[in-house]
Amino acid sequence: xxxxxxxxxxxxxxxxxxxxxxxxxxxxxxxxxxxxxxxxxxxxxxxxxxxxxxxxxxxxxxxxxxxxxxxxxxxxxxxxxxxxxxxxxxxxxxxxxxxxxxxxxxxxxxxxxxxxxxxxxxxxxxxxxxxxxxxxxxxxxxxxxxxxxxxxxxxxxxxxxxxxxxxxxxxxxxxxxxxxxxxxxxxxxxxxxxxxxxxxxxxxxxxxxxxxxxxxxxxxxxxxxxxxxxxxxxxxxxxxxxxxxxxxxxxxxxxxxxxxxxxxxxxxxxxxxxxxxxxxxxxxxxxxxxxxxxxxxxxxxxxxxxxxxxxxxxxxxxxxxxxxxxxxxxxxxxxxxxxxxxx
Length: 343
Hints:
Layout: H1 10-17, H2 21-28, H3 36-49, H4 55-62, E1 67-72, H5 78-93, E2 97-102, H6 107-119, E3 124-127, H7 140-143, E4 149-152, E5 162-166, H8 168-181, E6 187-191, H9 197-212, E7 222-224, H10 230-241, E8 249-252, H11 255-267, E9 277-279, E10 296-298, H12 301-316, E11 327-330, E12 333-335
């Protein structure tokens, strides 16, 4: 009988290349601390020798499954569904499964479902915080058990965690700047809950743009809502348009409220964008359906999901504890459509 071929391990590769197993692991996962030359040599040898990551053996050693847990707010939101798509694609390529759970933006449900994910013996956790979450102690369950956690988009106000997000300040600055360059002089801002850093940063970027172009920062047209839903978007639009000095532009921190703003303004006979220019955030599919089509900030959801899995896998394969935490910052850009285009 032919002897079964021995599986190649990172230790075999390390011995051949005269480097440490942890260096091999990092090179295979494109860790930033490893040089291009070493990465190339490791990957070349791995391919020649037929190396395959042994995720099953890893799960047996750690008494954990071959599964990544995903905790998000609402899976029916376009941004979240695209994020999950990116996570699933990357997880599949890494030989991992996923379990998806929703918090419905409720911190208690988030805690309850995190416990269920933990009990399912997940190997890593990717999470976008519930809108209500301001205390992060329920994540200690995972960190105390050395289960990697990667925060995506809605990230905690902590430095010692792995994050995948965008520069919300810069994106908001550019969105507001776009309205200013279209001739808007009085721009309102519809923001989300300020205890979530993404909405605070978007407001700060908006304010910075106004100051940069010497426009007045008027608190009466900077309005925050807990969930920035369609209903809240309508309510806030009604409020600002009823002012004696209504805005001639609106920067909304999501597309849901921006679409509501367009619909309400049109009902009131306000011409868009001539009298009121509007821009949203996320670049959801509805942006191209609403009339006029909505300008927005492209939010790279799929890429964020892929990057989150890459970070999780890298942490799972990390041999040496105490490595610096990662902060992955992805690019965004303004997508200009008819709702804000005056020039």
